[in-house]
Design a protein that fits this description.
The protein has 369 residues and is α/β, with parallel strands linked by helices. Helix content is 31%, strand content 20%. It has 13 helices and 16 strands. β3 and β4 form a beta hairpin.
Length: 369
């Protein structure tokens, strides 16, 4: 088949390579002048850094590891995160080590001992409180959620919370908890270039109408509402604005690659030390990124009942178009981590390849939230 892939981020490049390896004629169209989407890297004085915040790869899936290691070596960087609470930086995710040093330790342990057996999925707040108790929720999560998402946690869906929030017995594996983690040694942009090697790509091309692409199959990774020119309205995403400083000073806490700031009187949600990802030991200067919640970019789908209904309208529209499929975090309106993005592509490549022959009922059953 002649297949057009719209978007050269992680989903687009992975799908393009898998289909190319199966013998299809692939062309990629990318609206930016660079590859890599939100994972794109640049260099400063020979040091790679990520343009849009830290994206540290982690997985326990051997198929994902095998696929990525075809295109890049990875360092063994273990990402550790701190959070600024009660005037000091504490390790995050929450662990029993952290609880032991809190003034409310005894009360928190009592709350944990009386948590419900079943997680309450009514909304984000109910879910997290049922997982960690009210005190830890108030201290570590509530303000950060309000600050980042700019919506009441009671109005947010809880689908992704159990995967992102937990209390750990052991924090030795850092923020993500997977044994295999790290970053491409030459940066994500270099890895993406290797993934699509031999596949034609057209940069600085924005596809206004998918029908202009005369291909047997069009695979879109752009937001699904944008794909259909917002004909039913706009899906809500949270974006971030990034400010990067090249600092000639020491990083205040070398234990952490990133520090979260739940306090609402601090404008940024977190700051990250990009240098720590690639260099071990002391450095005289650091590349530091600050992240501010914003609306200009579309990065994180906001799970609300209204957004789910709107997405389903677009999905119902999508499945009636024989040669068009929407994939990825933006295309399927799902809060995927990077490992889950690649995993989805590997697990579903047969369905993608055979999509034109699927019935609308088969398509919606497969792609529904």
């Amino acid at each position: 088949m002649r297949i057009a892939v719209v978007g050269a981020g992680l989903s687009g490049c992975t799908i393009a390579r898998l289909l190319k390896d199966r013998g299809h004629d692939i062309t990629i169209f990318e609206k930016e002048k660079r590859i890599g989407g939100l994972c794109a890297t640049a260099t400063h004085r020979g040091r790679p850094y990520q343009l849009f915040g830290p994206h540290n790869f982690h997985t326990h899936n051997e198929s994902v590891i095998k696929f990525l290691c075809r295109f890049s070596a990875f360092n063994n960087y273990v990402h550790r995160v701190g959070t600024f609470v009660d005037g000091k930086v504490l390790p995050y995710p929450i662990s029993y080590k952290t609880i032991d040093i809190l003034e409310e330790r005894d009360y928190i342990l009592k709350e944990l001992a009386h948590l419900p057996k079943k997680v309450n999925m009514a909304n984000f707040e109910s879910c997290v409180v049922s997982m960690v108790g009210k005190t830890l929720y108030k201290k570590f999560i509530e303000n950060y959620t309000l600050k980042f998402w700019r919506i009441s946690p009671k109005k947010m869906g809880a689908e992704w919370a159990p995967e992102k929030i937990e209390i750990r017995r052991d924090d030795s594996l850092g923020y993500f908890g997977d044994e295999w983690q790290g970053l491409p040694t030459q940066g994500y942009t270099h890895m993406f270039e290797k993934i699509i090697e031999g596949i034609p790509i057209h940069y600085d091309v924005e596809i206004k109408d998918y029908r202009d692409l005369r291909h047997d199959l069009v695979i879109s990774t752009i937001p699904i509402d944008e794909l259909f020119s917002f004909c039913y309205g706009r899906l809500a995403y949270r974006g971030l604005d990034f400010v990067i400083h090249f600092k000639e000073t020491e990083w205040e806490d070398v234990k952490y690659g990133c520090i979260n700031f739940p306090e609402r009187d601090v404008a940024y949600t977190r700051k990250s030390n990009y240098s720590l990802c690639y260099y071990n030991g002391p450095l005289s200067s650091y590349i530091v990124g600050y992240e501010f919640p914003g609306n200009a970019s579309r990065m994180y789908p906001i799970y609300t009942s209204q957004n789910k209904k709107l997405f389903n309208k677009y999905l119902t529209h999508l499945i009636m178009v024989k040669n068009l499929i929407s994939v990825g975090r933006l295309g399927l309106f799902r809060y995927y981590d990077m490992d889950k993005t690649v995993e989805w592509c590997l697990d579903n490549i047969d369905m993608v390849e055979n999509y034109p022959s699927l019935t609308p009922a088969e398509r919606i059953q497969w792609l529904s939230l």
